[in-house]
């Protein structure tokens, strides 16, 4: 019988959530925090941190773990960077993560829009830290260069799972292509590069460690690990629920391997405490 470890989360502060939701609605913006109903969102908002999703709410890929709808993306909204910058200023955020759906239907895969968003944010407040959590852009080097030159403070791309499970979990993505993207970021940029792994999809500990080593070998310096939770019955099922002690152990393993910063826990997601990850080494 599988044991299920139910994580404890703080009750969301209604006034914090309402303020964020009001600003998002007014500026026609989306946060991953709201789309995924993340249990950490009130805590992150209270720390002046949020993760915004640009380029629409429809992904051109269909990963089996993800609850974002799949289809042909809508037209890119040229005003989104300015609306995003305006909302961030109004919310007095100090650290923002910008991510997006995959936009394989666009010639530049949405990379120029990422850059415009960073530039608009920095024009409003140069002190705001911006982390970009990008798709793989099909390893288009022009797209990757646009992101590198955008003025972002940290670059990230999620590996998500181990090699054996990658094709079933991300059928339109590629394990080695993701490694190449991360390596390109690490090789061609002075910024720290981050990636994330989900646990509970059917991997073994040995496979996790092997993937972590591959990430380290291509230049990833920051890592997050969290428990996969199945969005609906139609998605990839949870094969295992890990106890908190497992995530503590994996953090120690990752640090001993050479990662400069690691966040590992049941509720940890790729952007959880993003503003603090690695600060102790600055």
Distance between the termini: 45 Å
| Number of structurally distinct domains | 1
Helix fraction by DSSP (H/I, runs of at least 4):
25-40%
SSE-based structural type: alpha/beta
| Mean pLDDT level | 88
CATH architecture term: Alpha-Beta Barrel
Outline the biggest β-sheet. 7 strands, parallel
- Give the overall form: globular
Q: Give the neighbour order of strands across the main sheet.
A: 1-4-5-6-7-8-9
Number of continuous helical runs: 10
How much is the radius of gyration in Å?
18 Å
Give, in order, the helices and strands. Answer: HHHEEEHEHEHEHHEHEHE
Q: In CATH terms, what is the fold-level topology?
A: TIM Barrel
How big a fraction of the residues is strand? 5-15%
Topology readout:
Elements: H1 14-26, H2 32-35, H3 41-46, E1 49-54, E2 58-59, E3 69-70, H4 80-91, E4 95-100, H5 111-124, E5 129-133, H6 141-148, E6 154-156, H7 163-169, H8 175-188, E7 193-199, H9 205-217, E8 222-227, H10 244-257, E9 261-265
Parallel strand pairs: 1-4, 2-3, 4-5, 5-6, 6-7, 7-8, 8-9
Describe this structure in words.
With 282 residues, this protein is an alpha/beta fold. The chain has one domain (14-281): Aldolase class I (TIM Barrel, Alpha-Beta Barrel). The chain contains ten helices and nine strands. The chain has helices at 14-26, 32-35, 41-46, 80-91, 111-124, 141-148, 163-169, 175-188, 205-217, 244-257, and strands at residues 49-54, 58-59, 69-70, 95-100, 129-133, 154-156, 193-199, 222-227, 261-265. A seven-stranded parallel beta sheet has the order 1-4-5-6-7-8-9. The chain is globular. The model is unreliable at 1-7 (pLDDT under 50).
